[in-house]
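Contributing new complexes? Match this layout with magnesium ion.
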Amino acid sequence: MTASLSRKIIHVDMDAFYASVEQRDNPELRGMPLAVGGSAARGVVAAASYEARKFGVHSAMPSVTAKRKCPDLIFVPPRFEVYKAVSQQIREIFAEYTPLIEPLSLDEAYLDVTENLKGMEVATEIALEIRAKIKDVTGLNASAGISYNKFLAKMASDLNKPNGQAVITPKNGPGFVESLPVKKFHGVGPATAERMRRCGIETGLDLKSKSLEFLSAHFGKSGPYFYGIARGVDERQVRPDRVRKSVGAEDTFAEDLDDLESATAELRPLADKVWRYCEAQGISGKTVTVKIKYSDFTQATRSRTGVFPAASGADIVESASTLLASVFPFKRSVRLLGVTLSSLTRDQGDTGTEPPQLDLDF
Ligand SMILES: [Mg+2]
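Output block (do not edit by hand):
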């Protein structure tokens, strides 16, 4: 057996996390169709309870659409501080079993339990214990997937959701992948799925029939990953110190914006939010990206990479303003703006090994 077949990976995923926390804390919301998010005209559903999902309501859906699908839908504003605190409780439970924890978000993580702190042999039992402890400590349900790599563990955690778990063994991994539509694969978004469809790839078996050269030619850097997962192979390690690739913030406006001045003014709070996070983490980045979503839902992005990492929120605002000006006049009014910092580094512009930048006040 090769090392990659003998690893034991668990993917733990909380069930309808934000919505379940709200139902836990507000008994009158239990059993009700619930959406966490803004009910305003421009609001978006951040999470939906299972009662709401029956009506076709799901996360990232505009609230207006959600309300049309489910007229009795109850909207609750998000309480991220509470979700973060629960997430911390869950991570402490994980840490009783392994230091190899890779969070994907507040409510999902990969755990490598091949060698674990309890000396337990059977990963299925570890997953059962962890889910029972999560229920005990937080009152919430979690689902889990157990397999020999991250890709399959993640796929498995969906199989018996909610409040269930599933195992994919080395013996049935390749067959499982073959039968699955590629659009269900983690890492294949709607755009990639459509490109695959145009190449005649709809199932794992179709994907498996393509050569590495073909997949690399059509899907670039993702080619080797797709080649591997089509065979149930995924060599990615569980990385506890998973480094963030970007820090971003975005805002949908109550009213669409038409003029450059008011749109530029909206960049400041976004850049400040990004910078506050960077300061807290002691990181910065050289690439500033602005995302512009227009009233017809089409979007544009513009990026610029500086020689030095940003040294302040004002640096980010300056780059973002230039980028925004480059798409003015807007082809439609602006519905949403986003600011992202990437090419992240541990240096914060005016510190570290880079020559210091002058602190100029304009
Ligand atoms: Mg979840």
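Reviewers usually confirm one structural detail per submission. For this one: Residues 350-362 have pLDDT under 50 and may be disordered.
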